[in-house]
Design a protein that fits this description.
With 345 residues, the protein is an alpha+beta fold. It contains 10 helices and 12 strands.
């Protein structure tokens, strides 16, 4: 029996309302988690704004098929809200540099269970970075990393159990090392002075724990606070790198930016999701649908970003992040001030 015209309209209207309700729920979830995500559960939900937006666009596409004007108008507003969390990261700021870079940094969480560590070494030789920051490095990989000494003769490593190891390899001398630890958290914040072709800057690196447990959540936040305090004491331009286990949409990321005055190097280059919670043999295109950006490079405003991109897979659940930076020339007074601060400390 064919549906009457009235019944057909009622069914389509009901479908439109269900789709709109789902879209409104997604939008509310996005707003609440970004604004109030100071609690561990809400913050975890805040990391998936990219997925909320993709699902919202799919729902809006279905909503358009219903041809119901009011739900479509409300749905369009919801989509605009969801897109507003992503699109600004694709808009180039004034700090994006078109000139050649002074410094290339390769950042990679190599994963402590990585069975393809040779891929990490190959990528480093291929990309020829000036500075490499590796996380989740086991002591057993020290010999393999030593094979890069012809390219990166300077190094510093913190040996750790499981996922706490961190190694820094450099073409440049790593001077004035500083290590900050908090309480029982085994993961440190590291800081160094470096100079390249007349450009002096400071490197700060860390790898806080993933905030999936209450204690780890507090450890991560304490570690980010330690990094913030360290950065605010610096007098030279700062490059802050690490798998920070938070995304661009976390309120803790916003607080870090606001307190330090740093900018995320991703600005103008897109989201660049670097880690996927899905570990399987599914094709990369499918696992990338669930990926989120948690590996970061933040820089002082006077440092310009020439390029930032994801590197080729290296057998880890993280993609490497490769950043090209243009460093500022320091005036003589800035050099003297920075040197005096170092002597004072």
């Amino acid at each position: 029996m064919l549906l009457s015209r009235h019944s057909y309209k009622a069914i389509v209207t009901a479908i439109a309302l269900v789709l709109l309700l789902a879209l409104l729920t997604l939008t509310l979830l996005s707003i609440v988690t970004m604004s109030l995500g100071w609690h561990v559960v809400l913050e975890l939900a805040a990391h998936f704004q990219r997925q909320y937006c993709g699902l919202g666009l799919a729902l809006f596409g279905l909503l358009l098929l219903t041809r119901r004007r009011l739900p479509i108008c409300i749905g369009a507003f919801c989509v605009a809200v969801l897109l507003s969390n992503l699109l600004p990261w694709y808009l180039p700021p004034s700090g994006v540099a078109s000139t050649s870079a002074d410094l290339r940094i390769l950042l990679s969480n190599v994963w402590d269970k990585n069975q393809q560590f040779s891929a990490v070494l190959s990528l480093i030789r291929q990309e020829q970075p000036d500075l490499v920051v590796l996380m989740e490095v086991k002591p057993s990989k020290a010999e393999a990393l030593a094979s890069l000494s012809d390219l990166l003769p300077y190094s510093f490593a913190i040996d750790g159990r499981g996922t706490t190891g961190i190694a820094i390899l450099s073409q440049l001398p790593l001077t004035a090392p500083q290590i900050v630890r908090s309480g029982s958290n085994p993961r440190p914040v590291l800081a160094f002075d470096l100079a390249v072709d007349g450009h002096r800057f400071e490197l700060v690196a860390t790898h806080p724990p993933p905030p999936v447990k209450s204690q780890w959540f507090h450890w991560r936040n304490r570690q980010l606070a330690d990094a913030t305090d360290l950065i605010r004491q610096r007098r030279l331009p700062v490059v802050f790198v690490g798998d920070l286990n938070m995304t661009l949409w976390s309120p803790y990321h916003r607080r870090l930016i606001n307190k330090t005055g740093l900018k995320n190097a991703r600005q103008g280059f897109g989201i660049l999701p670097s880690w996927s919670p899905i570990r399987s043999r599914l094709p990369d295109r499918l696992t990338s649908l669930f990926a989120i950006p948690i590996d970061h490079c933040l820089v002082s405003p006077e440092i310009r970003v020439s390029n930032i991109r994801l590197g080729a897979p290296v057998g880890s659940d993280h993609r490497p992040v490769i950043v090209d930076l243009v460093l500022p020339k320091l005036s003589a007074s800035s050099e003297t001030s920075a040197r005096g601060d170092r002597l004072a400390t």
